[in-house]
Amino acid sequence: RPRVLSGIQPTADSFHFGNYLGALRQWVDLQRDHQPFFFIADQHAITVEQDPKVLRERTLRAAAQLLAMGIDPARSAIFVQSQVPAHAQLGWVLNCLTGVGEARRMTQFKDKSSKQGEGAASVGLFTYPILQAADILLYRPHYVPVGEDQRQHLELTRDLAQRFNHRYKKTFRLPEPYILKATAKIGDLQNPTAKMSKSASSPAGIIEMLDEPKVSAKKIRSAVTDSDAEIRFDPETKPGVSNLLTIFSALTGHAPTAIQEHYDGKGYGDLKDDLADVVVDFVTPFRERTLELLDDQAHLTEVLRQGAEQAGAVAEATLRDVYQRVGFVAAA
Ligand code: TYM
């Protein structure tokens, strides 16, 4: 079975619809006929300051949400990044293979450091994509299911894999991004040409998976639409309505054009009311299940421990090859 790997940062109390439709839903689907490794990227989270207590809580909330949406520990290794030390260890080796200029071209660092200024950002934020490359390459995955915003990091990952393979010996598989076009970039409800983002969006722009369902319904009803009143799927000229149609389509399985036809002659209000119902029906059981799972933290930490054990065995085997190939003397 082909391998897949992906990660998510525990930097919010709840995942949002961009995370879910852009990536996490594919994680769940790919479990069926792949060998999956899914992890919570707590080491990536601390590239910006985190409150330790909150980080710990959010890591467990992330685990509960992954289980609630259908990640099955019997099929997938689900684990916390910091519990598998090979990530940071391979990260160091790859740091030594990456040019400063090459790292500087990563647009996410530019975006994320622009507010405070580059000098105030952490070196960890700068080398973030290199740790991400290590996360991926350790497991020699075929596919990495992510949203569009991760494409550049996947390209760097492939470059570093190729460089290592060429300089030493063929060690890494060149992974393919697995990005579904229809949901690769879910828009902010208030600013639909920008992506829905936990750091950049206003609360009204994000549908959180763990919001009270009636809060989500309200956010859908007050989403920004376009100036004319026509319900038509056209992301270029009608980004607001098209974003709603994308979400509608993803949750119901109906094509955007079919939904568009159904609303022929109706108004934005009708579409929003119906989408609000669809969203409420979807998040209500998800939220209940997550809260239930959070009540049993011993179970969650045990699932994560087992996941780290499974993942650790694979990661350490790759790291051993890497250490040998770069010329480190093996401990006797
Ligand atoms: P993160 O935590 O920001 O987001 C998790 C996943 O959600 C996707 N995503 C979106 N997709 C569509 N529309 C949106 N508006 C949207 N917002 C977020 C992201 O593309 C991502 O797939 N660097 C990664 C975490 C990471 C990782 C890895 C991923 C660390 N190591 C190794 C893959 C492989 C990140 O910050 O994702």
UniProtKB/TrEMBL annotation:
Keyword terms, alphabetized: Aminoacyl-tRNA synthetase, ATP-binding, Cytoplasm, Ligase, Nucleotide-binding, Protein biosynthesis
CDD domains linked: TrpRS_core
Enzyme class: ligase
GO CC annotations on file: cytosol
Pfam annotation, one family: tRNA-synt_1b
GO biological process terms on file: tryptophanyl-tRNA aminoacylation
Entry keyword Aminoacyl-tRNA synthetase: yes
Record-given protein name: Tryptophan--tRNA ligase
Protein family: Belongs to the class-I aminoacyl-tRNA synthetase family.
Catalysis performed (reactions): tRNA(Trp) + L-tryptophan + ATP = L-tryptophyl-tRNA(Trp) + AMP + diphosphate + H(+)
Gene that this sequence comes from: trpS
Amino-acid positions noted as binding L-tryptophan in the UniProt annotation, renumbered to this chain: D135
EC number: 6.1.1.2
Organism: Nocardioides psychrotolerans
